[in-house]
Amino acid sequence: MATRQEISANRLDDAARAGWLYYVAGNTQDQIAAKLGISRQSAQRLVSLSVSEGLIKMRLDHPIGRCMDLGARLKSRFSLDLVEIVPSDPESPSTTIGLAEAGAAEIERWLKLDEPRIIAIGTGRTLKAAIEQLTPMECPHHKVVSLTGNIAPDGSAAFYNVIFNVADVVKSRSFPMPLPVIASSAQEREMLHSQPMIRETLELAARADVTFVGVGDLGPQAPLYEDGFITEAELKALQKAGAVGELCGWAFNADGRLIEGFTNDRVASAPIPSRETSLVVAIAKGEKKLPGIRAALNRRLVNGLITDELTAEGLLATE
Amino acid sequence: MATRQEISANRLDDAARAGWLYYVAGNTQDQIAAKLGISRQSAQRLVSLSVSEGLIKMRLDHPIGRCMDLGARLKSRFSLDLVEIVPSDPESPSTTIGLAEAGAAEIERWLKLDEPRIIAIGTGRTLKAAIEQLTPMECPHHKVVSLTGNIAPDGSAAFYNVIFNVADVVKSRSFPMPLPVIASSAQEREMLHSQPMIRETLELAARADVTFVGVGDLGPQAPLYEDGFITEAELKALQKAGAVGELCGWAFNADGRLIEGFTNDRVASAPIPSRETSLVVAIAKGEKKLPGIRAALNRRLVNGLITDELTAEGLLATE
DNA sequence: CCAACCTGTGAGTATTTGCCCATCCTCGTA
DNA sequence: TACGAGGATGGGCAAATACTCACAGGTTGG
Q1: Domain total for chain B?
Q2: Which residues of chain A make contact with B61, given a CB cutoff of 8 A?
Q3: What is the pLDDT of residues B196-231, one digit of tens each?
Q4: Do B48 and B73 sit in the same domain of this protein?
Q5: What is the pLDDT of residue A94?
Q6: Is residue B57 part of a domain?
Q7: Based on the domain organization, do B19 and B141 belong to the same domain?
Q8: Judgement on whether residues B88 and B134 belong to the same structural domain of the protein
Q9: Is residue B208, in this structure, part of any structural domain at all?
């Protein structure tokens, strides 16, 4: 008499045969049913079994395949709502190559929507590069709001504030923030934020449907420092306090917690919009930014990420 | 054979994405269409493209009892070092279905080795189909050497000479044989073989660690004849002399002995490498090739075989 | 011995996929 | 600028596939 195991092994054999006929030989299930002398439904079950039992392996031989794979893992590892991985070009030192195009594509996906949306934009080199990749289009029904001030320390318009570029290219209504990135004191910040126009912009930012931000590192070449928004002493103090990165000027430590005190008391940027009710996408890559990106993901300061293969690997490598 | 259309890299990227989403992530084409922002029909086209371009590879990972059994019996009956049996699809007239994938898998096993190897390759339709299934990989440390000439009777590159395809896909160093498959005379062959470069290639072939060859039949549609390497008269003469098959152009009789005289005096291919010190794998199946395969196994012209169920049965049935 | 249970089956039905065709867009040419 | 070839697109439809359900045959445990 046949034991259950033998029967099941036989069944797996049949499943393997059916799977082979289906996937490798390209038969239809009807043909398989005829060949194996069973009903089409049974054939379907066998084919299905061959997949669910892992008898059939499918592999994608294309550079993109690796990106998709990394993306899926990142998405589940950090419970992200959006992940986009672009192939790395190890030869190119550019911090924006590929990323800019991918970021622009994602921004355009939102702009193409017919229903009016509020799109919040941070600042930084990566974001600027992405905006430059945007296809000009007519989107007067959307609103684009800046999360950060657009006044550089010397009083001029901050170079890497990109809100005007966006509004220009896509013809949407724009809401810049006529503020310094970092106020001179907490009091000044409060004063500025209480101005009616700015208050409205802040409220608009809080209701953004989608947000795109860059991630800044706080190493020796921290963009905040290089662009003169913070002094060397302030940078050192932040580093000492454990800061590993910043979003729109908000410095945070390796846990993703905002650093208390220091420059954070004076950052005039809008708070990062809710990750519960909206999508906040970080666009960033690179060794230097890795700790910052990881921290932001861990504490869910963002729930979307556009990065490259190498960075994705780095994010998955640890822990 | 369909002419190779130049397809933009971007489209292949998209195809890869779609293929990944479909086969790996298990999305429906509707979902893919939504995610990529295209119509379902376009998604379907991309998925289909990813298969037809060979981006998606499917492999059956299960020892089907019947194939294992046949394989074990063949292995012991003919003292083989390697046997691989794939399921048969009795209805399909294709001479390569399934076999190509299995052959590619075995070739890949060798290519994946870290130590440098010399891999010799014969010629033929089956082998070409197998090569097309190879996954691109970087193997500059291996050497791939052709056993047969790559010049067709009309002077062009022989279509079924596959050495270039291999080298291309796996980036290894390749050693083709700039020779006709069959020289016009024994003298010409000697002359050609004495050329330094060719001599070196021949010596390399003799030292191959592993060899993959097809088996040609010598019936009315013998590939050697169909491809114009031998005349009808020569084919008839070979048949009369008892030839039942050929490896790389070397015709042999039912005992597996090389036919003396006739075209064998002029075959410009390298001799089949040693079965004592290396692995020589025949990849072949089909009723027509049965006598040839049997003869080659009997006299141990090869010590490895990749074939299908039906052929395996045929080999075991007689004697 | 019987009832509960499990496995596998076929029928019917909803969903998904493959393919044809009209149309649109692009680009080279007259 | 007009025009035609060639390729991409999306609608529609038939084929193929996946899923649900009720039931048959056999096993298990009382």
Answers
A1: 2
A2: 54-57
A3: 989 999 999 999 999 999 999 999 999 999 888 899
A4: no
A5: 63
A6: no
A7: no
A8: yes
A9: yes
Residue among A140, A137, A106, A141 at smallest CA distance from A121: A106
Are B34 and B112 in the same domain?
no
Q: How far apart are CA A298 and CA A77, in angstroms?
A: 9
What is the domain extent for residue A13?
4-52
Same domain, A34 and A84: no
**Distance between the alpha carbon (CA) of B41 and the C1' atom of C23, Å:** 15
Length of chain A counted residue by residue? 319
Question: Rounded to a whole number, what is the distance in Å from the CA of A95 to chain B's nearest CA?
Answer: 22
Q: B274-279 long-range CB contacts below 8 Å, 24 or more apart? A: B274/B206, B275/B300, B275/B301, B275/B302, B275/B303, B278/B208, B278/B209, B278/B210, B278/B211, B279/B81, B279/B82, B279/B209, B279/B210, B279/B211, B279/B303, B279/B304
Of these ranges, A10-14, A29-33, B145-149, the one predicted with the greatest mean pLDDT is B145-149
Predicted confidence (pLDDT) per residue in B292-308, tens digit? 999 999 999 999 999 99
Contacts of A8 (CB under 8 A, 6+ apart): none
Question: Do residue B32 and residue B111 come from a single domain?
Answer: no
Is the CB of A30 within 7 Å of strand D?
Answer: yes
Position B1 in a domain: no
What is the mean pLDDT of the segment spanning B132-145?
A: 88
CATH code of the domain covering residue A9: 1.10.10
Same-domain check for residues A144 and A42: no
pLDDT, one tens digit per residue, over A217-269 is 999 999 989 888 889 999 999 999 999 999 999 999 999 999 988 889 999 99
Give pLDDT, residue B133.
Answer: 86
CATH code for the domain of B73: 3.40.50.1360
Residue A30, pLDDT score: 87
Q: Do B62 and A69 touch (CB under 8 A)?
A: no
- Taking contacts as CB-CB distances below 8 angstroms, the residues of chain A near B12 are 62
Smallest CA–CA distance, residue B263 to chain A, in Å, is 37
A39: CB within 7 A of chain C nucleic strand: yes
> Is pLDDT at A4 greater than 50 in this prediction?
no
